[in-house]
Write a structure and sequence with these properties.
The complex is a heterotrimer of chains A (325), B (232) and C (477).
Chain A lengths: L2 H11 L8 E6 L1 H4 L5 H12 L2 E6 L3 H11 L7 E6 L3 H6 L3 E2 L18 E14 L8 H6 L4 E4 L5 H14 L3 H8 L3 E5 L2 H9 L5 E5 L2 H9 L4 E3 L6 E11 L5 H11 L2 H4 L2 H4 L3 E2 L20 E2 L6 H17 L1
Parallel strand pairs in A: 1-2, 1-3, 6-7, 6-8, 10-12
Antiparallel strand pairs in A: 3-10, 4-10, 5-8, 5-9, 5-10, 5-11
Chain B lengths: L1 E10 L2 E9 L4 E5 L6 H9 L6 E6 L2 E2 L10 E4 L11 H6 L10 H13 L15 H15 L3 E5 L7 H18 L2 E5 L3 H7 L2 E6 L2 E2 L3 E2 H6 L3 H7 L3
Parallel strand pairs in B: 2-10, 3-8, 3-9, 6-7, 7-8
Antiparallel strand pairs in B: 1-2, 1-4, 4-5, 9-10, 9-11
Chain C lengths: L3 H34 L5 H8 L1 H4 L2 H12 L4 H8 L10 H25 L3 H9 L4 H29 L3 H7 L7 H10 L4 H25 L21 H34 L3 H34 L3 H10 L2 H12 L9 H38 L4 H12 L1 H17 L15 H10 L3 H27 L5
Helix pairs in contact in C: 1-6, 1-8, 1-12, 4-12, 6-8, 6-9, 8-11, 8-14, 10-11, 11-14, 12-20, 13-16, 13-18, 13-19, 14-16, 16-17, 16-18, 18-20, 19-20
The chains are: A alpha/beta (325), B alpha/beta (232), C mainly alpha (477).
Chain lengths: 325, 232, 477
């Protein structure tokens, strides 16, 4: 293969359909995979809007925000989809986003009224283990148990950060103590969710930090009911994934249309079995069967978005101190 | 005629001076104690090492500043005279065109050279599969096709047995005689010099002396040469 | 400015890289020596297979290692079976173990190249002088090792310096924080490009110091070149050395091949029904690997020529492996963004960055070989007037065939296995195989991911084997 041919092919491949309106949505990479929501959503929206939907992947949520900051107002993106609650305040500070105009009626465990960002799915973090083993029902019990856990590093992973905020929100000033008590349970800390989940499935740990919805995947896609999420009495930290419209968009109407579409049935109904999260608007057909077997946390926890940044820095220092001993 | 005009060669502590002429078409042995600078003298003539002063004149032309390939010189080194990854024919062909784009006529010349050195049928072999004598013949065949008027031998046959070495030297002397080339050969062995070289350049104590007749020089050596020859 | 936690990260990073480099090269000595002086059936296959860990995506290789050394791995099951307590792989020793697993094959290849650089005539001479094995070691092998070991250790040190996933996954927690992770944090948490750049500069500075030290102690002194004859090692033809060599080879093979077998075993079921996206990604990866290889070879040849004149050129190339792909990717992004959409250049950029990553390895084998060529055949080529392209075509390329084949194979395989910067500019239509594996894992499809990992391993090995073979074919004739 000659390099200049490759370049030519690359240039030729970028769509040159000037007439058809185009909407560019930046999202995290796994959203786009064949097993993610991307393909179904692209097809459904393009049928509806008579436009071209460009889904562009950029790593994970944090990398997505990083890319947006790098590009600034020059960005081609009209919509960013895939930031989570931990990133919202940082995203807001960029000043790149503009308020949406969508009326919402969301099925969320808590009130949502952010002017810039609209949720599209949500879930609870939870430890996932194998059915039939004696499992802890709280962080304190886990810390005293012999159970081995594998978690993600909050500095490189969204679930890792979620766990950090979970412990901090529940225990406040005692968080460091809890981490110190958990230290001997932690087999290892991985850079991302995939590595941790992989280690757990290979039997390296009894529990892995994941989502309450993880067992649904095994049940629905693999007909395997051996995985369970552990209900914790302290409550479960939430992850809400959101999308926002960029101020510099050249397709404001189309962007609004996409945000409305995002809360519609065509989008929401594919979320449970592709992103393995809860939809923010219950689809007409309800949730897939396997979801009824999932644990339903009684207490949903989420740090106030404005305080998330400061809390996070504090919690990270405690985490590092406790686990570096 | 090869003229060395007030050549001054220095390398660290080593120093060698030369100022003489060698008649065209002559065969000259270069003899002297180990480390006296015999190889260095040849390397300077071939263009691998620059003198600090003086000139090298070939047929009225100053070649002191020319790169090796532009000098009228074909040189054989102590070792590494053949490329191991190329065939016999390719190694010889390099003497005609260094890019090996040979015409049919060039190839005929290569074949002729192969025949002359008695290596018929070995054109496709790699040097690693040949004996030492055969490798020497390949190198000579290349010198033959190079058609250079000045041939420098830096003891390329030192590793061969006496009989084989003599055979090679006869071959190269015959070749030089045929084309009228001037031949300079470094030698450790006085019998080599007596055998083919009517003239001898003595290199000793920082000086390369003008060529003298080999027989009288060896029969009646000056003290430095006498020491080297071991009294006889 | 870097804080105390950054210095702690730097200390850990340097420590683990030092230990990893040290163990890799020391353990490679008996293995390379055994390969250098023994001829047996399947030797070529063993050499190729042993190189496999180096080109595997980190997570696939780590899972293979854990199948052997993990909590539920073979070793611990065996220990449990005879009533012994389990060994814990997580920690500094686990990080070093994994790095040795990745880099022992590389070190072995470097040293093997060194052994093959000793002309067979020397061993013949040694045999004729009645040298015993220890004399041969002192007179021939030790001088070669003195010049080869520092360079090999330096390259491995540089690789381990930017370790991120291995160090974190097997390090067991924030004690095992590397500079690379600190860079990640600077990007993700604080979006502090300045801090990320400072950390990247520190990383580079460490590599540069290491490289200068290695050049200081690793003089390249010459071994005269022989006539490429296959060689025989008379002094080693005694039974206790045969046993020693067999032992070294068996241990290395077990250490490297059992985790590999686990990868294969784990991947086989998934390999049978890989989705079409995986195959598409495989094609993208192969095309990218080939173009990376081309870039790498051209760059390596140019730099090798420069390195002949200036020793330290080689050190510059090392920076390519030691600097985080995140930093390189972001840097390129910032460079291109004002002029064009970086995503458009994803393919070319990734090829180029992958090529850069292969450069230090290519130079390590090319520079000494080129130096030998210039020393041994330069005068002859000069006197024959071989210059420019003829010299390249008739002398340099043929004489460099073996190291070039090895370099090309390595460049291709590395590019195949590298997630690299493409993740930053990801284009869903042109995902590479490693990226696809990550996506599969991210979508819970661990079995399919394992299958895709096996496919990646097979393609990488095939590419490496083809190039490497091509380089070695009839060189010995």
């Amino acid at each position: 293969m000659k390099p200049h041919l490759v370049i030519a092919a690359l240039l030729a491949a970028s769509p040159a359909l000037a007439q058809t309106p185009q909407l560019t949505v930046y999202t995290y990479d796994s959203f786009l995979s064949e097993w993610g929501p991307g393909p179904a959503i692209k097809q459904a929206f393009e049928t509806e809007c008579g436009c071209v939907l460009n889904l562009v992947g950029a790593g994970d949520g944090a990398a997505l925000l990083g890319r947006l900051k790098l590009e600034g107002a020059r960005s081609d993106a009209d919509i960013v989809l895939g930031l989570d609650t931990g990133l919202i305040s940082a995203a807001r500070e960029t000043g790149l986003f503009v308020a949406h105009t969508i009326e919402t009626d969301l099925d969320l465990p808590l009130e949502w009224n952010d002017p810039l960002f609209l949720p599209y799915d949500w879930g609870y973090f939870a430890f996932v283990g194998n059915r039939g083993e004696a499992h802890s029902t709280s962080f304190r019990e886990l810390a005293e148990s012999e159970q081995k856990i594998v978690i993600q590093d909050p500095r490189s992973s969204t679930p890792g950060l979620g766990l950090l905020m979970w412990v901090k929100s529940v225990f406040g000033d005692e968080a460091e103590e809890i981490w110190a008590a958990l230290a001997d349970n932690i087999v290892t800390v991985t850079p991302g969710w995939s590595e941790a989940y992989g280690l757990f499935l290979e039997g390296e740990a009894d529990l892995v930090l994941s989502y309450t919805t993880s067992p649904a995947y095994h049940l629905i896609a693999e007909e395997d009911d051996s995985k369970v999420a552990l209900p914790f009495s302290e409550g479960h930290y939430m992850q809400i994934e959101v999308a926002g419209k960029l101020a510099a968009t050249d397709q404001p109407e189309l962007a609004d249309q996409f945000l409305r579409f995002m809360l519609g049935d065509a989008f929401q109904s594919v979320i449970p079995t592709t992103n393995w999260m809860y939809p923010v608007v219950l689809p007409d057909g309800g949730l897939p069967d396997g979801f009824s077997t999932l644990i339903q946390p009684e207490t949903a926890i989420l740090a106030p978005i404005d305080q998330a940044g400061a809390l996070r820095d504090l919690a990270l220092d405690e985490w590092l101190r406790a686990l570096s001993r | 005629m090869l003229r060395l005009e007030a050549l001054d060669i220095r390398q660290d502590d080593f120093r060698l001076q030369a100022d003489f002429a060698i008649p065209a078409g002559s065969i000259v042995a270069v003899i002297g104690p180990s480390g006296a600078g015999k190889s260095t003298l040849l390397n300077v003539i071939a263009g691998f090492f620059p003198p600090v002063a003086g000139r090298i004149i070939w047929e009225q032309r100053d070649i002191t500043g020319l790169p090796p390939a532009q000098r009228p010189v074909a040189m054989l080194f102590q070792d590494n005279n053949l490329f191991p990854h190329l065939t016999v024919a390719q190694n010889i062909g390099l003497g005609i065109r260094p890019d090996l784009r040979l015409t049919a006529e060039d190839q005929n010349r290569v074949a002729e050279a192969v025949r002359r050195v008695g290596l018929d049928g070995m054109e496709g072999r790699k040097p690693g599969t040949l004996s030492g004598g055969q490798q020497g013949r390949v190198a000579l065949a290349r010198v033959m096709v190079q058609r250079c008027p000045l041939i420098l031998l830096d003891e390329p046959f030192a590793a061969l047995g006496p009989a084989l070495k003599s055979e090679m030297l006869d071959l190269v002397a015959g070749l030089a005689g045929e084309t009228g080339a001037t031949l300079l050969m470094v030698s450790h062995d006085p019998t080599d010099a007596r055998r083919i070289a009517p003239l001898t350049v003595l290199v000793s104590e920082g000086q390369a002396f003008a060529p003298q007749e080999t027989g009288p020089l060896l029969n009646n050596p000056p003290p430095a040469l006498a020491d080297y020859l071991g009294g006889g | 400015m870097p804080g105390p936690s950054d210095w702690a990260a730097l200390r850990f990073t340097v420590l683990q890289a030092l230990l990893s480099a040290l163990f890799s090269v020391v353990l490679a000595v008996p293995v390379a020596r055994a390969l250098a002086r023994r001829r047996f059936r399947g030797r070529g296959l063993l050499v190729t297979l042993m190189g496999a860990p180096f080109i595997l995506p980190v997570i696939v290789a780590v899972l293979g290692l854990l199948a052997v050394f993990g909590r539920a791995g073979i070793v611990n099951q065996a220990l449990g079976g005879i009533g012994l307590p389990p060994v814990q792989i997580y920690g500094l020793h686990g990080v070093v173990l994994a790095h040795v697993f990745f880099n022992l094959p590389l070190a072995t290849r470097f040293l093997l190249q060194g052994w093959q650089g000793i002309p067979s005539e020397r061993f013949r001479l040694a045999a004729s002088l009645g040298f015993g094995p220890s004399d041969v070691f002192r007179q021939l092998e030790m001088p070669m090792l003195r010049t080869t070991l520092p360079g090999a250790a330096m390259v491995i040190f540089a690789i381990c310096l930017s370790s991120f996933a291995v160090a974190l996954t097997l390090g067991g927690g924030p004690r095992a924080t590397t500079v690379e992770l600190a860079i990640y944090q600077a990007f993700r948490f604080d979006f502090d490009l300045g801090r990320a750049a400072v950390l990247a500069v520190i990383q580079m500075a460490v590599v540069t110091v290491a490289a200068l030290l290695a050049f200081r102690f690793g003089h390249i002194n010459g071994f005269g070149r022989g006539l490429d004859r296959p060689f025989r090692r008379w002094e080693a033809e005694v039974w206790h050395l045969r046993i020693l060599d067999a032992l070294a080879l068996v241990c290395a093979a077990l250490f490297l091949l059992i985790p590999l077998a686990a990868v294969i075993w784990r991947g086989l079921p998934g390999l049978l029904d890989l989705p079409v996206q995986v195959w598409r990604a495989a094609i993208v990866s192969v095309v990218m690997a080939l173009s990376s290889t081309l870039f790498a070879i051209i760059l390596a040849l140019c730099l090798a020529y420069l390195a002949l004149a200036r020793h330290r050129t080689e050190a510059i190339a090392l920076i390519g492996v030691a600097v985080s792909p995140l930093v390189i990717g972001t840097g390129l992004f910032l460079l291109i963004n004002p002029f064009s959409d970086p995503a458009r250049w994803a393919f070319v950029l990734t090829s180029l960055v992958n090529a850069l990553a292969a450069l230090p390895f290519a130079l390590r084998v090319l520079v000494p070989a080129l130096r030998d060529i210039v020393r041994d055949y330069g005068p002859l080529a000069d006197s024959l007037g071989m210059s420019g392209l003829s010299r390249l075509r008739l002398l340099v390329l043929p004489r460099l065939r073996r190291p070039l084949g090895f370099s090309a194979g390595l460049a291709a395989a590395l590019s195949m296995g590298d997630l690299g910067v493409i993740a930053l500019f990801a284009d869903p239509e042109r995902a590479t195989l490693p990226l696809e594996i990550l996506r599969l894992m991210g979508a819970y499809r661990m079995d399919t991911a394992a299958g895709a990992g096996l496919l990646l391993l097979a393609i990488s090995l095939f590419l490496f084997w083809t190039f490497d073979r091509g380089g070695r074919r009839d060189v010995e004739a």
